[in-house]
């Protein structure tokens, strides 16, 4: 049995498919065009690219004066069609449409369409819609029946009657074609119902979110009155502003009230009126034409916007000026925070914390002042830059006068307020700011930090320089100590050894009888070599840097050397110097050695009573002179010692010249002159 059912089931499927295909083929001959809802689903599902489609429906709205598009509807939905032909269809025409299906800014549309009129018919049944349902897109493209109260009305050329309709909690714009003959004033505050098509007119295209919707009517017959305003509002008595939003028995939504006051401030299509006691915010056509100081009457609808009272859709009538401007009322911060002075003309006091310039639509900008009080912070806004306010500094105590604008939370509880200041004259400096304002303190702190950073940087650089100098001094001290040690070692070891070798060789004598000529020749060569090595070793010892120049300048070193040599004798030492700066080390060292040799010669050989040392250093030369009053030059120094030859060699080493002169009256003068280049730098240093 199961095997039979297994064979029978595919046969039944094949028969059913064949029957369905036959039905489709038969229906195709009649019409298989997709419905509007199918096209809407296609255009909004997944990734979609525009595609050419066909559909059909009845024209529910068309007006060649408003553009080359019309609305169609079938039993599943409605859609906008944008056509390319010269003439469009008429309302109630049955049409077949072919065009490009696109997603549209909010709802799908058919663009670049052509159409064929296949007949006429009756428009579909009206949907009873509320304002909220229209704004959430529920009735998009459908014929609707909307009830409400007319808030404002006007004729838009060429012949469109435009109405602002209050329906439920929403305000809907209604456009009635061919309504040029309707009287806008007659319809204000009337209760009406309208039959038309719900059309989205504004959307956030990138997000495809609906922003605003309109209802388009075909003719004045679709706009029907069902009630009118009980009485002419201009015939009603003027209502005090503080009573405008109080309870009144038997009041309907179509009742308007009449108020009177002086314009104190206007901003973004809203004017603030004040009658000397209270204030009110009024929105209506012509509000931007009013200016502060104008006396006006206004008739409008009392409304709540964000839980705050406003007289909406008002009509203004000018009054003769009384010549007296309304004065602001000084109010405590507690009263303003309580929300009872919304739209009132008040004066509040606070200490200026900060000011901020923000942009505005007119390009003038808005100056925002942040004011501190014991009860918290509030802001005051002034159009422009506030250039006419003297002594406006952070820390000053201000009285600001303007319109109190209260802010509320999601349940209507006042949370804060701000003051809309009409002009610079409404800001008064009660107490000037202390010199030590926050800004000045910040500037002073910045300067102090800058100075501190500079001092730290300077100290750091000085410490690095001192560390470098200390390292150089340690290195120089170590070098000096090593040189002195080396000089002592050479003197105590090598020089003494060479002296001993020289004496041994010299004691043998070149005239020994037992010595062969060859031996005597070798002995003489050894003696000459030892003498030469001894002289070179003594020369190296003298070339080592004097320790005296590490501690004293040249003149002091010469004076100390002369006094040490003349200590205990009758010789007087006179030192004169004229020195500008320190000489190069090599020049100083050689001049010291020359001076020491000259002083030594004067002490040992001249039998002098006075030794005069004169050191003159200028930018171009250095001159050292050692003079005595002794017996003059007697003999030159022995070979290997620092006599005149050694002094000449040292002078030549540093690029100088040495002169030794005997005075006619007795005594000797040793003078060495060294040219200096680039300050005190010698080319041979």
- Principal-axes geometry comes out as elongated
The low-confidence parts are: 1-30, 636-642, 679-685
Average pLDDT, all residues: 84
Number of helices in the DSSP assignment: 11
Biggest beta-sheet profile? 5 strands, mixed, barrel
What level of helicity do the residues show?
A: 25-40%
Radius of gyration: 58 Å
Written overview of the protein:
A five-stranded mixed barrel has the order 1-2-3-5-4. The protein is built from eleven helices and 29 strands. The chain starts with a helix and ends in a 10-residue tail after the last strand. The longest helix has 71 residues, at 438-508. By secondary structure, the chain is of the alpha+beta class. Helix 10 runs antiparallel to helix 11. The model is unreliable at 1-30, 636-642 and 679-685 (pLDDT under 50). It has helices at 2-30, 36-44, 131-135, 184-187, 333-337, 438-508, 517-543, 548-551, 554-566, 585-605, 644-653, and strands spanning 51-62, 69-73, 78-83, 93-102, 109-120, 127-129, 143-156, 160-167, 170-176, 191-204, 209-217, 223-227, 257-267, 270-274, 279-284, 295-305, 308-319, 329-330, 345-358, 366-373, 376-383, 397-408, 414-421, 427-431, 572-579, 610-617, 621-628, 657-662, 668-675. Helix content is 29%, strand content 36%.
């Amino acid at each position: 049995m199961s095997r039979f059912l297994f064979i029978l089931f595919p046969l039944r499927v094949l028969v059913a498919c064949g029957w369905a295909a036959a039905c489709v083929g038969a229906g195709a001959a009649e019409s298989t065009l997709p419905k509007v809802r199918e096209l809407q689903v296609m255009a909004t599902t997944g990734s979609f690219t525009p595609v050419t489609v066909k559909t059909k429906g009845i024209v529910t709205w068309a007006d060649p004066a408003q553009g080359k598009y019309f609305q169609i509807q079938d039993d599943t939905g409605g859609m906008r069609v944008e056509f390319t032909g010269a003439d469009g269809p008429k309302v109630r025409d049955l049409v077949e449409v072919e065009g490009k299906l696109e997603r549209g800014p909010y709802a799908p549309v058919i663009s670049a369409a052509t159409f064929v009129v296949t007949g006429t018919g009756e428009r579909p049944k009206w949907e009873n819609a509320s304002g909220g349902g229209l704004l959430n897109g529920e009735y998009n493209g459908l014929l609707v029946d909307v009830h409400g109260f007319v808030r404002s009305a006007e004729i838009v050329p060429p012949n469109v009657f435009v109405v602002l309709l209050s329906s439920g909690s929403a305000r809907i714009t209604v456009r009635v074609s061919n309504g040029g003959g309707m009287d806008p004033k007659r319809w204000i505050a009337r209760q009406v119902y309208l039959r038309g098509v719900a059309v989205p007119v504004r959307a956030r295209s990138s997000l495809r979110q609906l922003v605003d919707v309109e209802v388009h009517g075909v003719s004045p017959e679709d706009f029907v009155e069902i009630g009118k305003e009980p009485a002419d509002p201009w015939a009603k008595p003027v209502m005090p502003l503080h009573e405008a939003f109080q309870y009144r028995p038997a009041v309907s939504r179509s009742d308007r009230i009449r108020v009177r006051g002086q314009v104190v401030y206007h901003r973004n299509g809203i004017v603030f009126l004040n009658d000397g006691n209270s204030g009110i915010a009024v929105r209506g056509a012509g509000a931007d034409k009013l200016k502060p100081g104008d006396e006006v009457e206004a008739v409008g609808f009392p409304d709540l916007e964000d839980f705050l009272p406003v007289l909406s859709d008002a009509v203004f009538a000018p009054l003769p000026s009384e010549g007296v401007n309304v004065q602001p009322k000084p109010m405590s911060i507690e009263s303003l925070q309580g929300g009872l002075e919304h739209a009132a003309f008040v004066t509040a006091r606070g200490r200026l914390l900060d000011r901020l310039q923000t942009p505005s639509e007119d390009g003038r900008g808005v100056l925002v002042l942040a004011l501190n009080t014991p009860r918290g912070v509030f802001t005051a806004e002034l159009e422009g830059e506030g250039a006419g306010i003297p002594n406006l500094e952070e820390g000053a105590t201000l009285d600001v006068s303007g319109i109190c604008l209260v802010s509320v939370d999601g349940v209507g509880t006042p949370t804060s307020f701000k003051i809309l200041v009409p002009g610079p004259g409404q800001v008064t400096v009660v107490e000037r700011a202390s010199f030590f304002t926050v800004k000045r303190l910040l500037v002073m702190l910045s300067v102090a930090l800058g100075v501190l950073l500079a001092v730290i940087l300077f100290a750091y650089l000085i410490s690095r320089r001192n560390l470098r100098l200390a390292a150089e001094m340690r290195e120089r001290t170590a070098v000096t100590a090593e040189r002195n040690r080396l000089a002592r070692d050479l003197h105590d070891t090598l020089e003494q050894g060479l002296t001993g070798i020289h004496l041994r060789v010299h004691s043998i004598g070149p005239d020994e009888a037992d010595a062969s000529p060859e031996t005597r020749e070798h002995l003489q060569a050894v003696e000459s070599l030892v003498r030469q090595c001894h002289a070179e070793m003594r020369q190296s010892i003298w070339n080592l840097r004097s320790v005296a120049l590490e501690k004293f300048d040249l003149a002091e070193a010469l004076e100390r050397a002369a006094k040490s040599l003349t200590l205990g004798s009758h010789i007087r030492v006179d030192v004169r110097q004229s020195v500008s700066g320190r000489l190069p080390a090599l020049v100083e060292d050689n001049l010291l050695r020359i001076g020491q040799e000259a002083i030594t010669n004067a002490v040992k050989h001249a039998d002098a009573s006075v030794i005069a040392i004169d050191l003159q250093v200028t930018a171009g030369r250095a001159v050292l002179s050692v003079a005595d009053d002794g017996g003059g030059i007697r003999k030159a120094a022995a070979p290997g010692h620092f006599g005149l030859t050694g002094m000449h060699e040292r002078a030549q080493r540093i690029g100088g010249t040495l002169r030794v002169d005997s005075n006619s009256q007795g005594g000797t003068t040793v003078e060495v002159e060294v040219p200096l280049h680039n300050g005190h730098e010698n080319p041979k240093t």
